[in-house]
């Protein structure tokens, strides 16, 4: 393919990414579906006939691109959440109970459900089965924008969906936290493949991978966010108060500093970025600078999502699904239609958000349980684990995860807009389309 045609395709794709959200907003169709389909069409062009995409050979590129995409999305999610998390307030922790239930109940059940299905009836080796469960369990902060909060709501704003929406808050906060919390189970798969029996590594894994790295990641993220927020909003020298200057690149600096510092300290960088974003958001919550930072992150996320989704679509028609078999199809369909919905619904049994409050009703529980969108994070975890240790089933893992992500993109993408509109209408709230 000539360089001129590459520029033409990239330009057309960027234009597509810019107009798609507005064009498909009123239809039962999401921008990710169109981007994946566009990538598939590009892959079918005669110029690519000789190309067979081997995800094993392309693993380093996939790992770094998906890693950056998830990091940017996590920063955006943290800046978008209006509900504060005050460490010393019991009521604040209680208001986040939807997130804790999804993380503490739904996610382990999902990991166990996928891993046991793959390892037991389907005969997948234990390390690969655990990796599959860990990679497919997290919901995605990149592709789930249709069911998440839209951005930081400033005081006096009337054109935003209220952040008290428990459904959108639950799905947004879950997507922000569970990407980092999937890592302990990715490491469990790595240890199974490299060390062997669980009895040889479980104590160290429990103390460090499951607890220590989470604590380090959160503490580093909070510390970086606190320092940068102090500089941006309250620095003694006006030239350092970036909020007054209106320089939104602080959000990118925060993302990179939090991730880098956490990784150097041995913590989970994904959690550090989300914790950093929440901390920055907590400072001067009604300042316009919050919106400016979120807008910069949102633009970068759009660009990176464009690259990933076009690449995913291209890979679908150029070898990604070459090793997909009935086992992979069964796992993907079972996860999207049975395992995640059941785990998500069970997580909210007896749920109360406040004293005397009934919490999520039956309809809302079903929506939260069903819309566990799979996406870019799943691709990253497979790339990360396969880069750390050899998995004989690696190509099958790529095909299975790729199929599951596309299934989720299509099914959830088609249903998200009409379902959320009906839910808003049933609660007597203005829909996103009405606000737009």
From TrEMBL:
InterPro entries: Cation/H_exchanger_TM. It is a multi-pass membrane protein. Residues 15-421 form the Cation/H+ exchanger transmembrane domain. Keywords: Antiport, Ion transport, Membrane, Transmembrane, Transmembrane helix, Transport. The keyword Transmembrane applies. The keyword Glycoprotein does not apply. The chain crosses the membrane at residues 6-24, 31-49, 61-81, 102-122, 181-203, 210-229, 249-282, 303-322, 328-346, 366-384, 396-417. It is found in: Cell membrane. This is Cation:proton antiporter. The lineage of its organism: Bacteria, Bacillati, Actinomycetota, Actinomycetes, Micrococcales.
């Amino acid at each position: 393919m000539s360089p001129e045609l590459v520029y033409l395709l990239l330009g057309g794709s960027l234009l597509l990414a810019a107009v798609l959200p507005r064009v498909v907003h009123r239809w039962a169709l999401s921008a990710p579906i169109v981007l994946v389909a566009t990538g598939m069409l590009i892959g079918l062009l005669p110029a690519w006939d000789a190309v067979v995409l081997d995800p094993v050979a392309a693993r380093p590129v996939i790992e770094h691109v998906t890693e950056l995409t998830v990091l940017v999305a996590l920063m955006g999610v943290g800046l978008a959440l209006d509900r504060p998390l005050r460490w010393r307030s019991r009521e604040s922790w209680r208001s986040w109970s939807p997130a804790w239930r999804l993380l503490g109940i739904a996610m382990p059940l999902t990991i166990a459900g996928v891993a046991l299905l793959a390892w037991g009836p389907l005969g997948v080796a234990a390390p690969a089965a655990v990796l599959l469960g860990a990679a497919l369990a997290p919901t995605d902060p990149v592709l789930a924008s249709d069911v998440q909060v839209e951005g930081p709501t400033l005081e006096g704003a009337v054109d935003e969906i209220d952040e008290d929406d428990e459904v959108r808050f639950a799905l947004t906060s879950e997507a922000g936290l569970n990407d980092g919390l999937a890592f302990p189970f990715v490491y469990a798969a790595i240890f199974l493949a490299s060390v062997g029996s669980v009895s040889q590594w479980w104590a160290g894994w429990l103390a460090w991978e499951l607890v220590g790295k989470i604590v380090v990641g959160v503490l580093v993220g909070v510390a970086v966010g606190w320092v940068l927020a102090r500089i941006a909003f309250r620095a003694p020298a006006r030239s350092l108060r970036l909020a007054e200057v209106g320089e939104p690149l602080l959000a990118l600096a925060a993302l990179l500093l939090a991730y880098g510092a956490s990784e150097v300290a041995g913590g989970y960088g994904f959690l550090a970025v989300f914790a950093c974003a929440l901390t920055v958001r907590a400072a001067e919550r009604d300042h316009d600078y919050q919106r400016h930072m979120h807008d910069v992150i949102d633009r970068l996320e759009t660009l990176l999502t464009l690259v990933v989704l076009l690449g995913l679509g291209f890979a679908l028609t150029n070898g990604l699904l070459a090793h997909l078999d009935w086992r992979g199809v069964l796992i993907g369909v079972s996860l999207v239609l049975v395992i995640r919905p059941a785990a998500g619904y069970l997580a909210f049994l007896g749920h109360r958000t406040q004293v005397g409050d009934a919490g999520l009703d039956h309809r809302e529980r079903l929506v939260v349980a069903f819309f566990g969108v799979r996406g870019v994070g799943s691709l990253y975890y497979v790339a990360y684990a396969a880069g750390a240790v050899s998995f004989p089933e690696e190509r099958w893992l790529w095909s299975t995860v790729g199929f599951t992500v596309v299934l989720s993109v299509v099914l959830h993408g088609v249903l998200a807009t009409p379902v959320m509109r009906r839910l808003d209408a049933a609660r007597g709230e203005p829909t996103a389309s009405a606000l737009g």
